């Protein structure tokens, strides 16, 4: 994925340049003091920015500054588990060294280090490329270090290498981020250049003032020499007076020099102190701006990374949905082809002789599968995703495992197996199970997934089984499809085929939830009528099952009404309570 570039001049480099300039000026000042005498200078030089105080006192000095640590120390983890951002926060040589230490658990070799550094600096590689190459290398696979957050960025980098799509993707991402990166870079560089220019202007100004003071001192010395020559010519006539005047003049000049030295030392000390303060203040401001910019860039990088992961997940879900629709379409086409073939065969037979009852029954049976594909699509749209249904059905596993149901001696039968979510759970747990359903497309999908599924009516299949041959019969959202007399016959056959100690599990919509009973139940046009839990429990008990219990399931995910009191509690129970329930009954042991 795209990376943000670091500023070319770091805070440490800026401070180093300041210290070098101050050192050069101190050497120049020392040489100048040997060629001139001190004189008092006045006047202020404004730098044009309005900061007269800084222009007056800014002069060279050495700033004691602690080294700036731009990148934290890297500590390898004992559990060999990292996230990509643990390594992406390092840069250049530190990044390559830490990547080797984390993934390959060693220092980089010279060839590999040179290759990655040159690739990073030339822009041919980015950090994700380096991490992916190390992690996928034979040595990286042998070390078996876990790096989370690397897979999707690596895939995106692979997309960039595609001839056309990669270039377009890289161009779009780069263009989206380019204005922000350029603006931040230009602001930081402009600020640093302005500060450097301000200091350079002041230093030049100080040197100019020193040159003026030097010239004034030389002029004063010249005038003193002329006066001295004139006094020397008049020495014979007024030696006594001249000696007195010379003594007074010497004392006065010495006082002037002393005062000039004191004023110069005081001014230099003042300028040194103020310069230290300004340099410290400037360094802190630069560090704060640099940290703020880095934090903003990191947040943008993480936001883009999270968005890409979300898009990848959505794309995967949509692809799976399209594949399921494709399989349904193929199955529907196969069914249509089968119907057309049967009709043609029957038509040929009718030309020779009249159709018999078997042929008529076959033709009539084909009408029952007319809406198989439509019903599968309806379930995909309204019932929920396959992953969600699997998660819901796992609630029954502890009951079956406790009774040791699902072994070869206690196999299970799932009537109305549909898309096979329950069969998938049982197979993953190593339990023996058979599914039956009248929907040909559903049965075909189950078989494609490797499940044992039969295309047959549930009651017909139960009647074909020997007595006490099944460990459990399960039916999820099947009993609400059956007429009452068929439901009773189904329960009777379950009592007959289930072994002692076995169980029946029937899950159905809960009409005690007002929204389910009045609306959601009728999303499925093949539903006959809701079955309240007390009635279904009574029917199961009436056929001879013991320890029959009702398990309320799947409360509404909508936010209930807020408030206190019995009325609010009752309202939430009726409108936001369990949306399904299951009746579980056990066949008594002999």
Short description:
The protein has a domain at 375-586: Rossmann fold (3-Layer(aba) Sandwich), CATH 3.40.50.150. 62% of the residues lie in helices and 9% in strands. The chain contains 21 helices and nine strands.
Notes on the structure:
- The structure is a single chain.
- The protein is an alpha/beta fold and 590 residues long.
- It has a domain of 212 residues: Vaccinia Virus protein VP39 (Rossmann fold, 3-Layer(aba) Sandwich), CATH 3.40.50.
- Helices cover 62% and strands 9% of the residues.
- The protein contains 21 helices and nine strands.
- Strands 5-4-3-6-7-9-8 form a seven-stranded mixed beta sheet, sandwiched between helices. It has a two-stranded parallel ribbon with strand order 1-2.
- α8 packs across α9, α10 crosses α16 and α13 crosses α15.
- The longest helix has 114 residues.
- The two termini are 68 Å apart.
- The N terminus is likely disordered.
């Amino acid at each position: 994925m795209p990376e943000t570039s670091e500023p070319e001049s770091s805070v440490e480099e800026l401070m180093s340049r300041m210290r070098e300039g101050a050192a050069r000026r101190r050497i120049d000042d020392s040489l100048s003091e040997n060629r001139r005498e001190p004189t008092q200078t006045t006047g202020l030089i404004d730098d044009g920015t309005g900061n007269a105080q800084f222009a007056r006192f800014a002069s060279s000095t050495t700033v004691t500054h602690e080294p700036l640590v731009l990148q934290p120390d890297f500590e390898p983890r004992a559990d060999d588990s990292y996230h990509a951002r643990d390594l992406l926060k390092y840069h250049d040589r530190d990044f390559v060294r830490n990547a080797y230490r984390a993934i390959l658990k060693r220092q980089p070799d010279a060839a590999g280090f040179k290759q990655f550094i040159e690739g990073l600096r030339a822009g041919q590689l980015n950090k994700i490329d380096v991490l992916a190459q190390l992690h996928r290398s034979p040595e990286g696979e042998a070390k078996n270090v876990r790096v989370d957050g690397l897979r999707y960025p690596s895939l995106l980098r692979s997309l960039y290498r595609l001839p056309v799509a990669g270039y377009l993707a890289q161009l779009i991402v780069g263009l989206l981020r380019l204005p922000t990166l350029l603006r931040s870079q230009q602001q930081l560089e402009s600020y640093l250049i302005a500060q450097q220019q301000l200091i350079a202007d002041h230093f030049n100004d100080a040197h100019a003032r020193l040159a003026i003071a030097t010239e004034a001192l030389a002029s004063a010395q010249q005038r003193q020499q002329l006066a001295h020559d004139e006094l020397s010519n008049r020495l014979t006539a007024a030696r006594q007076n001249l000696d007195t005047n010379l003594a007074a003049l010497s004392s006065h000049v010495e006082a002037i020099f002393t005062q000039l030295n004191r004023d110069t030392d005081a001014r230099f000390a003042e300028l040194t102190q103020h310069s230290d303060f300004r340099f410290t203040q400037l360094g802190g401001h630069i560090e704060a701006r640099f940290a703020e910019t880095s934090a903003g860039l990191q947040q943008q990088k993480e936001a883009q990374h999270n968005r890409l992961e979300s898009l990848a997940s959505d794309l995967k879900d949509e692809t799976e949905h399209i594949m399921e629709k494709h399989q349904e379409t193929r199955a529907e086409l196969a069914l249509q082809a089968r119907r057309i073939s049967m009709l043609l065969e029957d038509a040929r037979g009718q030309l020779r002789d009249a159709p018999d009852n078997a042929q008529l029954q076959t033709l009539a049976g084909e009408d029952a599968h007319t809406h198989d594909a439509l019903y599968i699509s309806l379930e995909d749209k309204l019932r929920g995703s396959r992953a969600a249904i699997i998660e819901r059905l796992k609630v029954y596993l502890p009951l079956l495992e406790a009774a040791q149901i699902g072994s070869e001696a206690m196999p299970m039968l799932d009537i109305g197996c549909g898309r096979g979510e329950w069969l998938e759970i049982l197979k993953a747990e190593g339990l023996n199970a058979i599914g039956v359903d009248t929907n040909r497309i559903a049965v075909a999908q189950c078989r494609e997934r490797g499940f044992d599924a039969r295309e047959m009516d549930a009651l017909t299949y139960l009647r074909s089984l020997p007595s006490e041959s099944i460990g459990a019969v399960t039916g999820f959202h099947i009993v609400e499809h059956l007429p009452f007399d068929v439901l009773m016959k189904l329960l009777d056959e379950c009592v007959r085929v289930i072994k002692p100690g076995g169980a029946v599990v029937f899950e159905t919509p809960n009409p005690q939830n007002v929204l389910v009973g009045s609306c959601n139940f009728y999303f499925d046009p093949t539903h006959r009528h809701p079955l309240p839990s007390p009635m279904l429990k009574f029917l199961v008990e009436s056929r001879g099952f013991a320890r029959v219990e009702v398990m309320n399931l799947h409360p509404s995910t909508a936010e209930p009404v807020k408030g206190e009191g019995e009325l609010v509690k009752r309202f939430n129970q009726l409108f936001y309570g369990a949306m399904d329930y299951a009746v579980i009954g056990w066949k008594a042991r002999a």
